[in-house]
Amino acid sequence: MSNGNKHLTTGNGAPVGDNQNSMTAGSRGPTLIQDVHLLEKLAHFNRERVPERVVHAKGAGAHGYFEVSNDMSQYTKAKLFNGVGKRTPMFIRFSTVAGELGSADTVRDPRGFAVKFYTEEGNYDLVGNNTPIFFIRDAIKFPDFIHTQKRDPKTHLKNPTAVWDFWSLSPESLHQVTYLMGDRGLPATLRHMNGYGSHTFKWVNEDGEAVWVKYHFMAEQGVKNMSPDVAGKLAGDNPDYHTEDLFNAIENGDFPAWKLHVQIMPFEDANTYRFDPFDVTKVWSHKDYPLIEVGRMVLDRNPENYFAEVEQATFSPGTMVPGVEASPDKMLQGRIFAYADAHRYRVGTNHNLLPINRPKAEVNNYQRDGSMRSDQNGGGSAYYEPNSFGGPKEAPEYKQTAFQVTGVAEQAAYDQDDHYTQAGDLYRLMTEEERSRLVATIVGAMKPVEREDIKLRQIQHFYKADPEYGERIAKGLNLAIPQEVK
Question: Where do the coiled-coil regions begin and end (predicted)?
Fold first, then answer.
């Protein structure tokens, strides 16, 4: 895009007379420190990279809109879900989880599916994955889990032994491991995968009535996956394949779209459902709680600048609007703190002032100062509350709904420890061809594990989910099923 005849300037707006030659003492130099343009260029260049995300570092994004097709006002007062035909602008960031910023798109990994809705009530971030479940269910285990997915601090190489050691000692991971090692662990493109809120959330309507909800974004393009051979070849030949595909599709007018559906659970059912509905390693049966269509998300505009929009975009599951509230899900509770805290460190305490994160709704608060404050910083208005000078006040009608909590304050585990039923159900849902590919993938991933006891411990989990599942993995690894689980 042409900038016409605009003058090149320094960061403070002064015109630059020479951008080809630094200021020196004579033609041979040395260079003079008074060349402020040179110093500014070099200093800014050294700081062009903010710290990459600890997880979800490699990503692609796009703008679009969400349009309601089925009014949800009986369940939630959130305006973006109410009124057929209502449109809300949004931005999405897709990502891999474990790889660094320069890693390949086509590795076997969950994909982040983070949506920012710019609503008239403030931003709403729905920060999920392309899987309806996760590996762990308590945030206290998250740093340890991610460490196993990253590089070994001694060798600086990926460490399959650490991966499978952690998984074998964390049987709640089995459901997600089965999902990841199956065909959907390698989506063909970012356009051909579903997205999920993964966690359970609470919806509240205008009358204060609450229900539990799970989000499902179903790709209108259909779900398509790629073979490990193709994925491996692309990782070497075109490591940015997914990024390129998404950009080109939108640029060519082939706008990808997803239908948003929700599962609604009556509030009291949470006390009697056969699986803990707040355990993110579990799903709700669609037979028990059928999908209800809400609307349609369409991506129709590429970012103009990757860094400004995709890299500086910040998402947090704690960024909610009236009508959407948290559930007791322990992973969600931890993420509500951790994600916003990560952005304050990585991008800065005033990250919400950046255009990509700035709400469309008016912002009125008493937050002041901080690095890179780019607005009027409250001007001369009242800077504390309560005050006698007409400053913004709380609105009691937006208080979160009360819900009963009971129990002893302790470091307690979830009450239910059935980590095998749903993983086995997922295995049995697969066709024979899908099972064969799943087994081959797991066997290939476990062969480099250095200790046999780790392999045997993991095989027991597969066997408990489904005896055939465990036996086929054991056979592939030339190991026997431990007698104590038969």
Answer: none
